[in-house]
Amino acid sequence: MPLANTSSSYGTIAKSFHWITALLVLALWPLGWFANSWPYDTQEAFDTKWLLFSLHKTLGVALFFVALARIGWTLSQPHPHHLGENRVESLAASTIHWLLYGSIIALPITGWIEHAASEGYAPILWPFGQDLPFIPKDVPLAVAFAHMHVALTWVILGAVGFHIAGALKHTVIDRDGTLARMWFSRKAPPTPPEGKSHGALPALLATAVLAVALVFPFVTGEEQSQAPVAAAEVSTEAPTAAETPAEGPIWAVQSGTIGLSIIQMGSAVSGSFPDFTATIAYDPEAPGPQKGTADVTIDIATLTLGSVAAQAQGPDYFDSAQHPTATYSGPIVEGEDGSLTVDGTLTIKGHAASVPLPFTLTIEGDTATASGSTTLDRRTFHVGDNKTDEGSLAFPVEISIEITATR
Ligand code: HEM
Ligand code: HEM
Hints:
By secondary structure, the protein is an alpha+beta fold. The protein folds into 2 domains: 12-220, Fumarate Reductase Cytochrome B subunit, CATH 1.20.950; 229-406, Lipocalin (Beta Barrel), CATH 2.40.128. Helices cover 39% and strands 23% of the residues. The protein contains 8 helices and 9 strands. A hairpin with a 2-residue loop joins strand 7 and strand 8. The longest helix has 36 residues, at 139-174.
């Protein structure tokens, strides 16, 4: 079998490139999709998500170099003419071929830039490529390229669908040997008809489709393109870390309370932390389950808690002299039923633990009201360790939030 192409046949090198590319694309698509939709609510699930993303990126970078080599080789070779006389069909086939070539370059580039602009994410397993020249660590940049990457995944899916349908039509209906000439068969390929070339038209059509896909997410999601975005580092250790960075408009907290309720000697005592700062980025249109991030710092010394507020500041409880602030931060995640949860990590007195906070959100114009509550076990944070019996101070503590923020 000859290595190089002729005007009627593909050589072994072009065929090998074709099928290696096809295998990689057919593996990368589901891998990307599974990685993105994999849950990360437990450490085990998080580790699996991490691994899926690392494999996805590693194979994606490999595909990028295979695609470059393939395109270089194709440009140096004669191109077998389309089999069949139908001009519309040959135009469609060439346009799809251009689209496929464009996508196998644009998809890895957008994915790679998103990765390089993000911090603390599943690494590429090659010994290079975590960072890219001229690409700063910048959340809005990462988000923009994530949008483009996701839009392109639909372009390549459609293109591959039409491409395979075309190959099947040639094989089952036309029976003209199109598939056989891309396969490693020894049979001499048929001689293609002398057709007039479509000139630059297929390349232009494919470029237009790619351009629309790259611009589309920004036209439809106006907030995404205009909004300033919070910089958020996603921890590489916490089980609540997510692949998608904080994105979307910043919501400035106008008023609100973080309340807590304890059971002391069998009766409920309620109080609140009036003084806290919060950075909330939220974009309901963000791709994937993560819609933003919340980052809250609470001033412990401002706690009101009935008659026991002063006692609660003591070393056995919040120890505000040593630990004046508590923090709570994590991604805002939308469940399959549309419910919202901050998958946050709460840190009190240096003890960090995952405390998911489900909440409801009402947005009217540029004002959002969020309210939610959750229950935690005070022992996780070593608050009141000397009160080992629930009779004097119950273990569960209810936390509630009521926040009004403007865009
Ligand atoms: C999934 C990723 C795939 C990609 C990115 C891809 C890409 C391409 C490209 C760019 C060409 C044009 C080659 C050239 O002439 O320069 C081509 C040709 C071809 N592909 Fe694919 N392909 C894929 C999958 C498949 C599959 C699954 C099949 C079979 C069912 C297939 C069958 C063919 C055939 C038969 C040709 C030759 C068409 C002709 O001779 O006119 N491809 N492919
Ligand atoms: C042809 C190659 C590639 C294909 C077909 C592909 C496909 C996909 C798919 C289907 C998704 C899931 C999108 C969703 O469900 O919303 C995805 C997500 C992702 N891919 Fe790729 N990918 C490719 C290359 C790469 C490369 C080379 C990298 C990085 C080095 C990469 C990084 C990512 C990232 C970070 C995401 C998550 C996007 C987000 O933040 O929403 N991909 N990819």
